[in-house]
Amino acid sequence: xxxxxxxxxxxxxxxxxxxxxxxxxxLFPGGVMITETDPKGFITYAxxxxxxxxxxxxxxxxxxxxxLIRHPDMPKEIFESMWETIxxxxxWRGYVKNIRKDGCYYWxxxxxxxxxxEENRVIGYIAGRKVAHRDKIERMERLxxxxxxxxxxxxxxxxxxxxxxxxxxxxxFDRVK
Length: 177
Fold this sequence. Notes:
- This protein is of the alpha+beta class.
- It has two domains: about 5-130, PAS domain (Beta-Lactamase), CATH 3.30.450; about 135-175, no CATH class.
- The protein is about 25% helix and about 25% strand.
- The chain has five helices and seven strands.
- It has helices at about 50-55, 60, 75-85, 135-150, 160-165; strands at about 5-10, 15, 35, 45, 90-100, 105-115, 120-130.
- A hairpin with a 6-residue loop joins strand 1 and strand 2 (about 15).
- The protein is globular.
């Protein structure tokens, strides 16, 4: 029997169990899911669509680390690169597989933008998510698998123009057909 892992909501003190992955996808029906975090990645705001899709209540989410919804299939290097990018004040864009409270997963195309104060300091982040294209999800699953297995380095994926990278004829496209 596996041990339950928890994250602690730093506002409520509540221990929230990390979801146990199930091999079942829930399709994101559309609209925009929005979250905001502080500079350390703790959620400060989650819109209704985000709460509905993840299955977590706003009370559970606000104060919890955003990594609560990180699916274990996502290579950690992707998130390391994301943090490097957004800490520099730059926008990050990527395909992400997240986990819901019930353990099911969903794919989204995420845009993360730093929130900058009047003294040009990063004071948090805002993320918007929209429906990811099915054909690109299938290719990203394969790319992320290659990354997890050490067959490609994250730099081959990161910083790329996803749309160009996933088109027929690109050097990575042939590896993920």
